[in-house]
Design goal:
Blueprint: H1 2-17, H2 22-27, H3 43-46, H4 50-59, E1 95-97, E2 104-106, E3 110-111, H5 114-120, E4 130-132, E5 135-137, E6 147-151, E7 168-170, E8 174-182, E9 185-196, E10 204-208, E11 244-251, E12 262-270, E13 283-286, E14 296-297, E15 309-310, E16 312-316, H6 328-334, E17 346-353, E18 356-365, H7 369-376, E19 384-389, E20 392-397, H8 401-411, H9 419-428, H10 431-444, E21 454-459, E22 462-467, H11 491-497, H12 509-516, H13 520-537, H14 540-551, H15 556-565, H16 578-599, E23 604-612, E24 615-619, E25 622-623, E26 628-634, E27 639-645, E28 651-654, E29 663-665, E30 672-677
Parallel strand pairs: 4-9, 10-17, 23-30
Antiparallel strand pairs: 1-2, 2-3, 5-7, 6-8, 8-9, 10-11, 11-12, 12-13, 13-16, 14-15, 16-18, 17-18, 19-20, 19-21, 21-22, 23-26, 24-25, 24-27, 27-29, 28-30
Helix pairs in contact: 6-14, 10-13, 13-16, 14-16
Length: 678
């Protein structure tokens, strides 16, 4: 059996290699290992949907005759495009699947006979997934002499599922899952979602899942056999630490998609805390070997599309901001692009479960060791990924050992006088990254931090870097965080308080700042890094641009549909980000004032830092946004400038004649520091 599957796989590859365009794109959507370890590879992975259309058009050309058409009527794909040949290598002609006879029509004048479908279904169990005006699924033909069994509710077929013996007319959005059984064993399987007269003008994520295991009370089950209980409903699946097998499909262009762009078998689990109360629930989608091997390879995000290999992602309901807006969290974190800080790339999508509409979600990267593999090219097995809440440190990848060692080192040293200890700490923690991270969290006015929502990663040869995430309690959100004034709390006071849990001292995250800020070198570095972050990344203009760009991806019609399904009565819902822009209008100036007050600094000054020739200048280790940077800094704070040659360049001197490198300077209004390279 395995050798036969390998033969089929090789044949498929030869076919796809002879094509161009979307055929190879879909094959590349999932990287499949060369060795199958004795597992039967599902045909949903081994062959692209377009192979079905290719078979019909190129393997059975004799069937392309109007004489075989009879009187059957063709059912068109709702986008007007071919359902069976969409994206195929043979032609771009439109075709359709008959709603009555199981025939395929090409350009309205040629139809395949039912027996040709039977031949084709030996290669593909089902017609291509997608958006149709109507469709009848013909009876698939066994490839291995087994029995075809199908379900139409999202559950996986089993050996006792009713055999599929007559055509099935799809009259509404339906998740169809078929498998060919040899006794109790599955020889091949497919899961396809068929949308009927569905119009969606955003990317679509379609999830097939056993409805009896599902977490949705609207579907009739809070959990297996539990139909109702009061919140918190701990008997419900969405309060349990469980993972459910799912099949996931993605349509980049919504209902105008010519074909689905990728599909994976994966595990689904609930994420979030109190946001689980909401009917729209956040979930994690994780690829594991128990579902399928390999990684999803597709440019899901427009930002850094080259970082396109994924092992997992989240579908988030915007957390506690579910009742307030669509984009606060992803918008704020997106401001960090280019800063070197880690954050979750994201995009807004519409999600369907078993063909049922579930609204707008934030599809975003998942912060785990695979995030590092995706964005840094580091093998995930080499990564220590830690979560720090109050005094508790846990690892989702690797171990906590090096992080705890860093915390203990900080606790036992006085950095105000011990320069050797600070030098040692810089090998354990990227202090520049930490300064940028702290500046960002202070700007976000995040009350659910620093005693919560802290994550960091390192490897054996890289110091710890911190990661920004879960900002839904920031930017003036008025839901209670105990002891935190959401409009006016000074963030330096909040940090030194240890957050809402007053976590101070040994193994508390706040202790890192409290002890490190006493070191004069770090204090200087932090102030200068914060000045650049506030000038270039964290400001009103960037918030307005990011807000407008994100809301533009969500058509008003889609917002209205989502709001109709999930009425928000607790807050005045901010569809277009007006509240976010309003908060941003004063936030940068407030943070600058707090920094000046905290460190006893002078007035704002304008300073230019530039380079000529093959090189750049680092400001206290920070790469500036440009090689000719002018920004607002704080008077009475020195700068450490380092001239760094690039592309074989050689540092000559500073424009004022100094050859010191690095160079400690005291800027004043209008200061200009230019490094010359040759």
């Amino acid at each position: 059996m395995l050798s036969l599957k390998k033969t089929l796989l090789v044949s498929s590859l030869l076919v796809l290699a002879s094509c161009s365009g979307d055929d190879t794109d879909e094959w590349n959507a999932v990287e499949v290992p060369n060795e199958f370890d004795g597992l039967i590879l599902p045909d949903s992975i081994a062959q692209s949907d377009t192979l079905y259309g290719w078979y019909l058009k190129d393997m059975a050309p004799d069937a392309m005759s109007s004489e075989k058409a009879g009187s059957s009527s063709g059912a068109t794909n709702s986008s007007g495009a071919s359902s069976s040949s969409a994206g195929s290598c043979s032609s771009g002609k439109s075709s359709s699947v008959s709603s009555s006879s199981g025939a395929v029509e090409t350009d309205g004048d040629s139809v395949y006979a039912s027996e040709d479908y039977a031949d084709a279904s030996k290669v593909r169990l089902l017609p291509p997934a997608g958006f149709y005006s109507d469709i009848t699924i013909p009876v698939p033909a066994p490839q291995y002499g087994g029995i075809i069994r199908c379900t139409f509710d999202g559950s996986e077929p089993t050996s006792v599922t009713t055999a599929f013996t007559s055509p099935y007319t799809v009259t509404k959005n339906t998740a169809v899952r078929c498998a060919e059984f040899l006794g109790d064993s599955v020889a091949r399987k497919s899961s396809h979602t068929f949308f009927i007269n569905e119009k969606v003008s955003m990317p679509v994520v379609a999830i097939s899942i056993d409805p009896y295991q599902m977490f949705d009370p609207l579907n009739g089950y809070y959990s297996q056999g539990v139909r109702y209980c009061t919140e918190p409903c701990y008997e419900a699946n969405y309060w349990k630490d469980i993972e459910l097998p799912v099949h996931v499909e993605f349509f980049e262009n919504g209902s105008s998609a010519m074909k689905r762009d990728w599909q994976i078998d994966a595990g689904l689990s609930i994420i979030g805390q109190w946001s689980r109360y909401r009917a729209k629930k956040s979930v994690a989608i994780k690829m594991k070997s128990e579902y399928q091997d390999g990684r999803l390879k597709y440019p899901i995000f427009k930002t850094r599309p080259e970082n396109n290999k994924f092992k997992a992602f989240n579908l988030r309901n915007n957390g506690n901001r579910f009742v307030g807006d669509y984009i606060e969290d992803p918008m704020l974190s997106s401001l960090l692009e280019g800063s070197g800080l880690d954050y979750q790339r994201s995009r807004q999508v519409v999600v369907f479960y078993n063909g049922a509409y579930y609204g707008i979600f934030d599809l975003r990267e998942r912060l785990n060791e695979h995030y590092i593999e995706t964005n840094y090219g580091i093998d995930s097995k080499e990564v220590n990924m830690v979560k720090h809440i109050k005094q508790n440190v846990t690892a989702s990848g690797g171990t906590i050992d090096s992080y705890v060692a860093m915390l203990d080192f900080i606790h036992t040293h006085d950095f105000s006088t011990d320069t050797a200890a600070y030098t040692k700490l810089k090998t354990m923690m990227d202090v520049g990254n930490y300064a940028d991270y702290m500046a960002a969290e202070i700007y976000y006015h995040n009350g659910d931090w620093p005693d919560n929502n802290v994550r960091a990663w390192n490897t054996a040869d890289r110091p710890f870097k911190f990661m920004v995430f879960d900002l839904d309690h920031g930017f003036g959100w008025d839901w209670a965080v105990s002891g935190f004034n959401y409009t006016s709390h000074n963030m330096f006071s909040w940090i030194k308080q240890g957050g809402t849990n007053r976590c101070l001292g040994e193994r508390c995250f706040a202790e890192i700042y409290i002890k490190l800020i006493e070191n004069p070198d770090f204090r200087r570095l932090f102030i200068n890094h914060a000045a650049v972050m506030l000038e270039h990344y964290l400001n009103y203009d960037k918030v307005v641009a990011a807000t407008d760009a994100m809301t533009a991806t969500i058509p008003t019609s889609e917002m209205d549909r989502d709001m109709n399904k999930y009425p928000r009565n607790e807050h005045s819902f901010d569809k277009f980000g007006a509240n976010l822009k309003s908060y941003a209008s004063t936030r940068t100036s407030i943070v600058r004032a707090e920094i000046s007050l905290e460190f006893g600094l002078g007035q704002d000054i304008s300073v230019e830092i530039a380079s000529t020739g093959k090189g750049k200048v680092l400001l206290d280790g920070m790469t500036l946004p440009s090689n000719d940077y002018t920004g607002r800094f704080f008077a009475d704070n020195d700068m450490l400038l380092t001239a760094v040659p690039l592309d074989g360049g050689v540092f000559e001197a500073w424009e004022d004649g100094s050859k010191a490198n690095p160079r400690l300077v005291t800027p004043v209004q209008g200061s200009k520091f230019v490094a010359k390279f040759k």
